[in-house]
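for ur thesis appendix - Putative lipoprotein. copy paste whatever u need, i formatted it the way the template wanted (i think)
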Amino acid sequence: MAARPRRVKRVKLALFLSSMAACVVVAIVGFLMMALSFTVIGLAGQAPGLAVGAGDFRGGALLATQLAAMNFILFFITVPAAALALGLSIGRFPYRGITAPASYVRWGAVWGAVLVGGTTFGFGWFGGAASALGALMCGGCIGAIAGAFCGFLFHAIVQPARQLTQMDVSVF
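the 3d part is after this line
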């Protein structure tokens, strides 16, 4: 008879907090990148204002930063999507015995880049192929940063190495 895997605690709590943090961190990183890009555009002496309507790479990148900065408005969509993606990827790691933090951070970054980059790519496609590529690249970077943080947060909350090596002395 195969041994039943141990029960790992705090996984659902970590999924909930990580998905909430994903929404907030994407908005913060998007806002900071948008402010940085406007500063660089201003220092370069180019035309001030938004270049979102432009069908070039820069227009797509600025679109991605603006969509990411306003991520918290659609929290009722982004939080469950992040929880589902994290739950089906890094949420299963503790049950499989994976305890290395690098795995959690790496897969958090991958899924963050896929979710944010894919969403911004879809909206960037309305501006053309160059705009979609700029939105994909910039959105993927924002999502990877936020996802890496969420993977680290998930690992810090669950602490799989401690839970899996801890001896169970309960009688009942």
